[in-house]
Amino acid sequence: MKSSSKYHQTQYCLFVTFLVLFVVVKSQLTPNFYATSCPKLLQIVRKEVQNAIKTEMRMAASLLRLHFHDCFVNGCDGSLLLDGSDSEKLSLANRNSARGFEVVDAIKTAVENQCSGVVSCADILTIAARDSVLLSGGPTWKVPLGRRDGVTANITEADNSLPSPFEGLDQIIAKFVAVGLNITDVVSLSGGHTIGLAKCATFSNRLSNFSGSGAPDATLDSTLLSDLRNLCPANGDGNITAPLDRNSIDLFDNHYFQNLQNNKGLLGSDQILFSSDESVTTTKSIVQSYSTNSKLFFDDFANSMIKMGNIRPLTGSAGQIRKNCRVVNS
């Protein structure tokens, strides 16, 4: 009897172990997730992103930013795309700033026409971000897929979790660490600012001393300071934009890091990666490495994007596959 009991206990433990392993494996993201259910998915997304970038080159940076801002809030669940009174689009980091939602709608429509109710908005965002980088001259990588869409937005977390251009390096690093990313990820993902534009309102705090009251940021190159003051006069339109990567606006390259070494980072949160006291023991050496080794930057960026895409994804039966990225299924 005892021998039989031990046998059944052993068999039960093996069954539970197998079940746990099966669930874990099943819930893991994989590049081949849609190989059978939507085999043309990658081609469809690539074509739509290509069309959007041909219309407006800046859209590459905007789509990349959408993925970043989605993953840092609720995980990579497409919650940023939801409309409504509690939409993450209304948070301080996204209001009148996050853009590209119409492009995501166009991609979703094209995907739905091919394979309805199969592909999540969260996965579409992830693929579109990769394609935006590649089509701008940057690296490519195999995108792990299988995310499902969240059913609630979280404007409070968007206000609290997204890094701000006005924060110190320690604060920014802490926000990355909170979602499982490290210091290398901070620097490599900041390198996404090698493309795109930023509004005067996000860096005008570095241009003070218009009326002699307060010095400008000492880590800002004097020529760049002069140019930015002309572009963004005191009490001017805070929505006017300047390139994040001066002299290499639309090309995804390592020029951004060379700018930082020459005090030509546009945002305070960019320049502190090289110039702050904290950077000496954390990020400065990585900036220096990337500035001379574009392959290292490309490899690390791709790895960091994959890591970021794995922040708290919904898989299995969690969440849903939204038919319209802006609203939860009825």
What is the rounded Rg?
22 Å
Instruction: Give the percentage of residues in beta strands.
Output: under 5%
Number of helical segments? Answer: 13
Mean pLDDT: 92
The biggest sheet, with number of strands, parallel, antiparallel or mixed sense and barrel status, is: 2 strands, antiparallel
Helical proportion, percent range: 40-55%
Indicate the overall shape.
globular
> Which class of secondary structure composition applies to the elements?
mainly alpha
Number of beta strands: 2
Q: What is the quaternary state of this protein? A: single chain
Give, in spatial order, the strands making up the sheet with the most strands.
1-2
- End-to-end C-alpha gap: 55 Å
Q: Give the helices and strands as they follow along the chain.
A: HHHHHHHHEHEHHHH
* Sequence stretches where pLDDT stays below 50 over 5 or more residues: 12-26
Describe the structure.
The chain is an all-alpha fold. It has helices spanning 2-27, 41-55, 59-71, 101-114, 121-134, 155-161, 169-178, 183-190, 222-231, 255-261, 268-275, 284-292, 294-309; strands at 197-199, 241-243. A two-stranded antiparallel sheet has the order 1-2. The N and C termini lie far apart (55 Å). Residues 12-26 have low confidence and may be disordered.
Quickly describe the structure.
By secondary structure, the chain is mainly alpha-helical.
Spell out the key features of this protein:
two-stranded antiparallel sheet; mainly alpha; 13 helices; 330 residues; single chain
Write the layout of secondary structure elements.
Blueprint: H1 2-27, H2 41-55, H3 59-71, H4 101-114, H5 121-134, H6 155-161, H7 169-178, H8 183-190, E1 197-199, H9 222-231, E2 241-243, H10 255-261, H11 268-275, H12 284-292, H13 294-309
Antiparallel strand pairs: 1-2
Helix pairs in contact: 2-4, 2-5, 3-5, 8-13, 10-12, 12-13
